[in-house]
Structure to design on (79 residues):
């Protein structure tokens, strides 16, 4: 289903099954949000905002996200 179809009217709903590889089980019942970086036009701004937000506390994660964003720009031929 595309964004131009029914998805626009569904809002937030359970669409994916996420498996976390965490032996502690600390996050067993947590809610996860999945971004489709190939088809969702809002994923890049969302990842950019997340990288900016976490940079001070998690600089390596922020750097990794920015690397991913650079790769996405190349993949999608963005300026």
């Amino acid at each position: 289903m595309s964004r131009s179809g029914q998805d626009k009217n569904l809002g937030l709903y359970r669409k994916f099954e996420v498996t976390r590889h965490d032996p502690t089980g600390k996050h067993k019942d947590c809610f996860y949000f999945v971004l489709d970086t190939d088809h969702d036009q809002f994923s890049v701004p969302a990842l950019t905002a997340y990288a900016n937000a976490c940079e001070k506390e998690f600089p390596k994660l922020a750097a990794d996200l920015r690397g991913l964003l650079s790769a996405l720009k190349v993949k999608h031929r963005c300026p």
